[in-house]
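Slide 14.
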Amino acid sequence: MGNVTRRGVALLGSTGSIGVQALKLISHFPDRFEVVALSAGRNAGRLGRQVLEHRPRLVAIGDPRLRAELEGPAREAGSRLVAGPEGLCEVATCSEADVVLAAVVGAAGLLPTWEALKAGKVVALANKESLVMAGPLMREAAARSGGSLIPVDSEHSALHQCLRGESIESVRRLILTASGGPFRTTPIEELAHATAEQALKHPVWEMGRKITIDSATLMNKGLEVIEAHWLFGLPGDRIDVILHPQSRVHSMVEMVDGSVICQMGIPDMRGPIQYALGYPDRFEGPVGPPDLTKPGSLDFYPVDGARFPSLALAYRALEAGGTAPAVLNAANEVAVETFLGGGIEFLSIPAVVREVLDAHTARPIHSMEDILEADRSARSEAERIVMKAGRT
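Slide 15: predicted structure.
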């Protein structure tokens, strides 16, 4: 293997799906990676076990009421313990971290990711909401500090890999693939009665609850369109989505000369995580290649807008610009959480988002406070709408 520089890794959201997989991957490469900081929002039990196993220098819990649960594990591991939102930002800017894996779910990851970029960190980005909500500010922070973004989402990781060595001027369009989730072939009239249990049964990927519901509505792909815009600099009309139920082709790039470059792999998030943490190096890991000799097909279909109205809402928010994507994200988070709690029907998720967007006039983004205010206002409006829907 030769001489390898060991990289310090700070994890934002270590107890979630991506964080847990990342820690398993890091354990596979003790000579390449070292866990230097861990953070979680509320799962103090799992975080405590991770602290004892990985013994980071720094550990943070987002909910300060849970600090006492971590005092024992932190003391035993010799880790410094901080609590509250400022603790997450401290993990994001940890001086020993060469790479910060941003895997906090939803808007909670916004400020820590921003702080990491302002600190000049290499950010392995699994929190797409950061770019959706505050793309201009994230890009500006990275440009000023010398920080960088390496995508962890399998689709954006695929695009990043396809574009290595290519100029963006040679690209005609980016093509994001989507499995179609659990309801790709369900009769539309049955979707009104879809339960959370059904929506959480993703046919291919194992993911957290929120992102799995987003995959069922295809809002996840809409957020990825906005993320791709900020990562690669192409407008929405040059970023397309197609359905690919086998999830073996993770994304494609169509070049101006008619060539199409695709990245393939088995549906295992350890591959994109390894690519992001190790970039620009490639090395043998625990994820093998797909067996192309096995019987099967590669099928691709257009997106049915009637079945997946959330995708069009995301394109609409991207075109409106300014605060509109932050409003889209906030309304969707409220609607998904309410659906998971049994408060609204599945088809009400895009309906709530549409109503919030209709009521919002997009404003330019000049500061992080502009984003936070749009987020607060949209959440308040969405909560009003779901409460009304719950009473009808």
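Speaker note: The mean pLDDT is 94.
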